[in-house]
């Protein structure tokens, strides 16, 4: 089918959700796809979540078959990419997770399957193992380890763009204030048949969407040049209920130290006191981070996770202008669920255009 005859689709949003959705749609060779976004890879802005993400696969899903499917599909695809496309910036890395006694008692819903001795992905991830007390630091009552992956967003997002360009997809900077405007921004100059809405956190402000269930989950991290031997995750911390402890080593060097999850907090300025607490907690679980007795700090980061009450919105909607397929609200799971959510988008686009 020539591009003139293919249904025209505009993907609104150029974060990991939008770029991945566009790529899977383009791979079908059934659609003429264009991507527009207020921000593009290379931009750094507090409204543009994807560059600030820790960006790994460390599932916290519990008792949700839809979200499990998203994570399962994504794990298989990034395992393939890590092997076949090392230039994509995806790195195989061992995960070590520890559970504190207090968190076992609280059963914090944010922690999901991390509190299960044998979570749903145990039979899927290579080298899954339950840790014995002798294998954990003092003060932890449960632990697991398995093989997973970490992304470097500053490499991976431009790689996604390169893949889109190789499929003939236009990627352009455009700002729209209402979802209906996106129909007029296909690269062909013709009206789009369908829009895929991947506006993330800004779905709460986009005209025609204005989703009041969407909120920022503020995260603060410290990027250092030091290297960690694994990715670490702790179920909570004693400093504050909304603070977390995690370590993510990245492809091409550098390690992310985190963090926090502060609901409805839009503040883009790093808190120096929190940064010190983050560093202290990370060194307690991974003293190997310090080389020659110090941390080599590159940058203090703040990102706003595009979270949503009730979970992500992946569904189709018939509007006067045409069909819209929504894909936003993944919160902290944007990368680890990206291919699964985009696969769902492709299914919904097929259903919408067939109708």
Automatic annotation (TrEMBL):
Cofactor dependence is on: FAD
Q: Which SUPFAM superfamilies match?
A: FAD-linked reductases, C-terminal domain, Nucleotide-binding domain
Q: Which UniProt keywords apply?
A: FAD, Flavoprotein, Oxidoreductase
> Under which name does UniProt file this protein?
FAD dependent oxidoreductase domain-containing protein
Q: Which InterPro entries match?
A: D-amino_acid_oxidase_CS (IPR006181), DAO (IPR023209), FAD-dep_OxRdtase (IPR006076)
Q: Which domain of life is it from?
A: Eukaryota
**Signal sequence span per UniProt?**
none
Q: Where is the FAD dependent oxidoreductase domain?
A: 8-348
The similarity annotation says: Belongs to the DAMOX/DASOX family.
């Amino acid at each position: 089918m020539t591009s003139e005859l293919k249904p025209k689709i505009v993907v609104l949003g150029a974060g990991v959700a939008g770029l991945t959705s566009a790529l899977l749609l383009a791979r079908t060779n059934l659609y003429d796809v264009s991507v527009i976004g207020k921000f593009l890879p290379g931009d750094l802005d507090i409204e543009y979540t994807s560059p600030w993400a820790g960006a790994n696969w460390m599932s916290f899903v519990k008792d949700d078959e839809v979200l499990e499917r998203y994570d399962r599909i994504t794990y298989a695809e990034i395992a393939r990419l890590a092997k076949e496309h090392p230039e994509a910036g995806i790195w195989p890395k061992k995960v070590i997770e520890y559970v504190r006694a207090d968190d076992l008692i609280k059963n914090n819903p944010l922690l999901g399957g991390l509190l299960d001795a044998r979570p749903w992905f145990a039979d899927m991830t290579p080298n899954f193992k339950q840790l014995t007390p002798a294998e954990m630091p003092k003060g932890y009552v449960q632990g697991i380890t398995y093989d997973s992956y970490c992304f470097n967003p500053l490499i991976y997002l431009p790689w996604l763009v390169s893949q889109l360009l190789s499929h003939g997809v236009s990627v352009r900077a455009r700002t729209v204030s209402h979802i209906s405007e996106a129909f007029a921004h296909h690269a062909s100059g013709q009206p789009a048949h369908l829009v895929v809405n991947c506006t993330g956190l800004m779905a709460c402000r986009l005209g025609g969407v204005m989703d009041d269930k969407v909120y920022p989950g503020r995260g603060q991290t410290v990027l250092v040049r030091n290297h960690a031997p694994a990715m670490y995750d702790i179920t909570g911390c004693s400093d504050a209920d909304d603070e977390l402890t995690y370590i993510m080593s990245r492809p091409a060097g550098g390690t992310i130290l985190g963090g926090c999850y502060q609901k409805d907090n839009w503040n883009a300025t790093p808190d120096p006191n929190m940064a010190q607490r983050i560093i202290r907690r990370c060194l307690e679980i991974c003293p190997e981070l310090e080389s020659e007795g110090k941390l080599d700090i590159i940058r203090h980061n703040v990102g706003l996770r595009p979270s949503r009450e009730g979970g992500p919105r992946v569904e189709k909607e018939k509007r006067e202008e045409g069909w819209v397929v929504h894909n936003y609200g993944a919160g902290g799971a944007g990368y680890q669920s990206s291919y699964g959510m985009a696969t769902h988008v492709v299914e919904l686009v097929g259903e919408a255009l067939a109708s």
